[in-house]
Amino acid sequence: ASLFILIPEFVYVKDIYPAHYRANTMFKLVYQSFIMLSISSGYIIVRLVSNFKLQRKFNFKFVVFVCIGSIGLFLVMVYPYFAIKSYYGDLKTYSGIDGLVYLKTRDPQDYDAINWINSNITGRPVMVEAQGDSYTDYERISANTGLPTILGWTVHEWLWRGTYDIPAPRIAEVKDIYESDDLNLTRKLLKKYNVEYVYIGGLEHQKYPNLNESKFETLGKVVWKEGATKIYKLNP
User: I need a labelling partner for 93 at 20 to 30 A (CA). Which of 11, 116, 220, 223 fits?
Assistant: First the structure.
């Protein structure tokens, strides 16, 4: 674990952030270090306590070690109190472990659509949805169903590929799929990415104010609908 923390000080994968080239290497390795240290800490503490009980005479070095270690242990044990409280408040509201529950209140139509997709669509067909930025609600369909889409969070796609030239063209292409009045262009783009389903929900209307939904009536049919949210299955 200590080695994982030390490695990025000398060796790292250069990423897209000019002021923080080693940020993601640190994140990936130190995250693993925390897991390893948390697992080993219990064993280490038990060994220290056992060793302390076995001491037959005063050992200054051991006492110093225990004192320093106890301070470190105290600081580690105090951290969860502040960390958990700062994010979850007083812990009186149980949210559960279902990562999809938040959508029940934020966007119930998306929630119902995702459950329908998971229950009725098999395989890994491509479903196009609105493209958005990191740490937003965009890509909520692909994230919660596992179905591929044309473009995910742009900066993450950029980071993973090392160049903005790969994801950048897809931003305009997804926009054209939703907004273009050119039926042939839309067909061409859908075929290019082997799209089988088109998702139209609140975020799609928000992202693409000139969304041309009528053309999808020609290109396919509605297979799921709730309010203004629809899923179109494209014709073969």
Answer: 116
